C-alpha cells in the first residue's frame, strides 16, 4: 500500500508516462495510412470489376424476365405481345406491350444506368427500338437475335439474352474467350 504514501505529483507523472506509451507516433500513423492506401489501390480494380459483373447479371436477369413476361402475356391474352428495348438519354429502357401499340405509347422502365446496349445486339430495330414479338402461342414472329449488355465503364464482360428458335426459346448467355458467329456472347 505504498501507493497511497506517494505524493500526488509523482502519481500524475507516472500516469502521464503510461498514457503516452499507449498511443501511436506520427510516423507509425503515416505507415498505417500508407499501407491502407496501397491495399485499397490493389483492391479497387477488382471491386470495380465485381460491381460491373453484378450489375450485368442483374440486368441480364431483368431482360430475360421481360422477354418471358411478354411471351406468357401473349399466350394468356391470345394476342401478339412485344418486348421492346431502347437507349434513351444514355439509359437502357424496356417495355412490354401489345404489338398493336406503338412503342412510343408504351410504359418504359429503366435498367441500371451503368449498363449499355453492346454492339453485338442483333434484335430487329424499328425507329430506334429493338424488339421481339411473341404470337398468341408464345412463338417468335421471325425476329431471332440477341440483346447484349455491357458496362459503360468499359471492360470486356458481356451478358446477353438470346431468342434462339421460332418456337420462342429464350436463353441467357455470357461472354466467352472464343468468337462464335462473330460474337463473344453466346
Structural class: alpha+beta
Identify the quaternary structure here.
single chain
Radius of gyration: 30 Å
* Residues in helix, %: 25-40%
Q: Largest sheet at a glance?
A: 5 strands, antiparallel
Topology as a string of helices (H) and strands (E): HHEEEEEEEEEE
DSSP strand count: 10
Describe what is shown at a glance:
With 186 residues, the protein is of the alpha+beta class. Helix content is 35%, strand content 31%.
Describe the structure.
With 186 residues, the chain is α+β, with helices and mostly antiparallel strands. The protein has a domain at 58-185: minor pseudopilin epsh domain (minor pseudopilin epsh fold, 3-Layer(bab) Sandwich). It contains two helices and ten strands. It has helices at residues 8-20, 26-77, and strands spanning 81-88, 91-98, 109-110, 115-117, 124-126, 129-134, 145-151, 158-163, 170-180, 183-185. It has a five-stranded antiparallel sheet. Strands 4-7-8-9-10 form a five-stranded antiparallel sheet, covered by helices on one side. Strand 9 and strand 10 (183-185) form a beta hairpin. The model is unreliable at 1-5 (pLDDT under 50).
